[in-house]
Amino acid sequence: MNQCLLFDNDGTLVDSERLCNIGLVVKFRELGVKLDADELVIRFRGWKLASILDTLSIEYALVLPDDFVASYRAIVTDLFETELKPVDHIEETLKNLSQPKAVVSSGPVHKINQALRVCGLTKYFEGNIYSSYEVKIWKPDPGIFLYAANSMGFKPECCVVIDDGPVGVEAGYKAGMKTLFFNRFNEALDYPSMVSFSSMKELPKLIYAK
Q1: Strand pairing of 178-182 and 194-197?
Q2: Integer angstrom CA distances of residue 90 from 74, 143, 146, 209
Q3: CA 48 to CA 84: how far, in whole Å?
Q4: Structural domains for the chain
Q5: pLDDT(15) > 70
Q6: What pLDDT digit, counting tens, does each position of 143-156 carry?
Q7: Buried-state track 172-182, b at ≥16 Cβ within 10 A, e below 16
Q8: SS3 at position 53
């Protein structure tokens, strides 16, 4: 059966989630709030940025300044250029997967493209980038994966979702796609057709497994 592989970006292809949350730590510190980047990764992995900011603003009774998002994005852009690395073993894994591939991410296109460029992964996706900011659908809504599958010319049952976030796993499951959970934090998720794994070295055999 022909397959299409739909990869999340942050935390799945590139080790970016802590850097993104360091940006939040810096910005909220300016407002007198102390946050922990590692705790933010666990809590908000895969979330829409606006939802994260709304949640934190309510919790800490803050009104964020108008330039907050732009300033935050600038910090993350600089961190990506100097510190971003690919997820362990992802490039050798991508080299061994011949199927059509796409990135399906809640991040904006410019952030996805920067991450792929810095980590040397752009060539594996041939411009197949699907961003929630363009499609206007955010995980856990399955529509983002269904849109990507349709754009790639594949039925849902012929697609494999690879995602490290609970919201992405939920979206993949709801889309009716084989869903592989890159479980970096030993979390317990309960979806009947989901398969959990902890190293990208395991990915090829899981993709080909019936």
Answers
A1: parallel
A2: 26, 26, 24, 19
A3: 20
A4: 4-15+85-208 (3.40.50.1000), 17-83 (1.10.150.240)
A5: yes
A6: 999 999 999 999 99
A7: bbbbbbbbbbb
A8: helix
Which residue type occupies 111?
K
| The token pair that represents 184 in the structure block | 């970096």
On the question of pLDDT at 114 being above 80, the answer is: yes
As a whole number of angstroms, the distance between CA 16 and CA 19 comes to 5
pLDDT of residue 208: 86
Rounded to whole angstroms, the Cα distance separating 161 from 176 reads: 10
**pLDDT per position as a tens digit, 181-194:** 999 999 988 888 89
Q: Evaluate the CA torsion angle 117, 118, 123, 127 in order and state its sign.
A: negative
| pLDDT tens profile 115-128 | 999 999 999 999 99
Beta bridge partners of 102: 6
Residue 204 preceded by cis peptide, ω within 30? no
At which residue do the structure tokens 């980590």 appear?
119
pLDDT for position 66: 97
Residue 141: both structure tokens together: 């809504």
Residue 193 CA to chain centroid, in angstroms? 20
Tell me what pLDDT residue 1 has: 60
Q: Which two tokens stand for residue 132?
A: 């929630």
